[in-house]
Structures are given as structure tokens and as C-alpha cells.
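Q: C-alpha cells for this one, please.
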Amino acid sequence: MINFKRRYIMRSGFAIPGVFMGALLSVVSAVILTVVIIVTAASDPGVTLRAFFTGPWSGPWFFGNTLDGIGLLLTASLGIVLSFRGGCFNLGGEGQIYLGGLAASVILLLAPAASVTVAFGLLCLAALAAIVSGGLMGALSGVLKKRFRANELITSFLISAAITPAADYLIAGPLRDPQGSLMATGRFGITLPRLLPPSNLSLSFIFALVLIYLGHVFIYRTVWGYRYKVAGSAPDFARYGGIDPERCWVPAMGVSGALNGLTGFFAVAGTYGLCHQGFSGGLGWNAIAVALIARNRPLALIPAAFIFGWLKAGSDSALLSRGLSFETTAFIQAAVLILATIQFSTPLVIGNRVSRQGVPGGKP
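A: Here is the predicted structure, written as C-alpha cells:
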């Protein structure tokens, strides 16, 4: 019996792929949920809603700080995307960001204010220290997975959890500024240039956009990126084509950790100008949410990070307006993380005039 192929032709209208439907549903659901929570929980819903929607963009200080947070999310979420694409899941981003920022701080604390040339060299050295420290943490999980078949979710999380108390001790002990009242180091004499004073927006935002573009070029425009992507998404097919997917595990985790470490450098050298306890503040977990919303596409990280950064900054602005409690804003951000995991496997068809046409000699 002969099976005849059929062609499906869209006469009019278009279809939204399921991957984009999932992202759109995540964002819309998060916004609706936030509005509902504000209306039901805020003491003055009108003022709180205004603070939520317009607060992050209401002035240079708020606008710059929102963009700065988005830049940090972009760099960290790119690390998550590259680990996903390589067939791994890096769950230790929080510790990698923390250690990267601490390693960069050690370099920056040794350097007082200097000339432009010397400052540039020291900033590069601090960034390199952050990249290497975060990369080694990530690569260790990759090695454990490749050599001992250890689950990288567990190892990356446990390594991160073990590093964090040690970093806290160093910040609160040997590296703490004795003249300050915070659990923090002294202020650095050299920092990244600010783009929109008096906000925290620094040159790291531009670097983040460049890294996103380079990640897109690597994955979609190079042969190595194609092999890397196939090895992570379809390991059996990769083996059939002569590609060993296990060779991607260590680089995937190493590069992911390196980008997280670089995020830590951007945070201490650009955002804060010092290193204080807990400066990562859930950034590693938020980066996972952004990567999930973007469905592991580098260029899609830009709108995903903007939306997530706006939701977070809007929640903080609503908190400052005294309309919401801290627990409520934390619940909103947790709900966004959960909604980001929603997946759609079928497209949404706009305009249902779809015809079915058989091949010559077959049934229509």
C-alpha cells in the first residue's frame, strides 16, 4: 500500500511558533498576575500601579539603574544559554558571580587611583581574574560530568553553595574596610566609566550587548557553533554525524561559569564600586528565568532581559512607594520564574484558512 505525502498550504494568515507563544504567555501572565496582586494587596493601588509601570523610567537615576540591572542579566543569562546549548544545565551561577566579583575585588583593592592607561590594564586584569575563577568553577562540574557521570545540576549547585560561605568570610573578615559600617570592602580607586551619572549605569551595559551579538554569531553563523548546538540538542544525531557530544560538556560549563564570573566583575567594578556581602542578590537565578523566557536564543535575551528587568525594577519601585511589602515583591519575582518555564509545542494559527493538497497521483 502506497502512502501519499500531503502538503499543507497556508492560504492566508500566519502562525506564531510555539516557542514564541510560550515566551509571550509567560510575560503576559506575569504582568497580569502583578497587576492583580497590586490591586488586591496594595494600600493605594493607583499610586502603586503608577510606581510599578512608570517608576523604572521616571528619571535618569531610575532609568540608568534599570538598564544597569538589565546589562547584568544579559551577561549572566548568556552564560546559561550557552550551557543549555551545549547539553548542560548550570545551576551554580549565583556562586560563580559571587566568586568572580570577589576575585576582581582583590585585584582592584590593590590598585589606588592611577592614570588612564594603568587603570585600563588593571580593569582588564580584574576582569580576567573574574572570568578565570568563574570558569574554573563551571568547568569543574563539566569534568565531573564527563569523567564520573555526575549530574551537573547537583555539582554546580553544591560547589556554588560551598564557595558562598567562604566568600562571605573573606568579605566580612580580611577584606572588610575597618572604617566602614557595612560588611563590605573599601571603595575601589578604579571603576568602569559611568554612562548616565548619577545612576549606576556603566560601560558594562555596552559590553553585554556586544557579548550577546557574539553569542548569536557563534551559534548561528559558525560551523563550530552548529556542531556545538547539535551536540547539545540531539546527541544521538551528533554521534551519527561524527560529533562527540561529550566533548562539549566541559567547554559549555566553563564558558557559562566564565560569563557568570564576568557578571560579578561588572557588578563590583561598575554597579557598586565595592564588593559587599550578598551583592549577587539572586542574579544567578534571575538569569535562568531570562534564559527560559528567551527559549535559549541569544538575541531573544535582549527583550527577555528588558521585560524581566522592568518587572523587577517595577516591583522594587512599588515597594518604595509603600504600596507593597517586601514579601509580595519577592512573590511576584518568584511567580515570573515559574511562568518562564511554560512551554508550547504547537503554533498558534492566526487565520485558519489552511488547505491540504495531495501530491500528483495521490488523494487530495
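A few notes: The CA atoms of residues 44 and 323 lie 6 Å apart. The longest strand covers residues 6-10.
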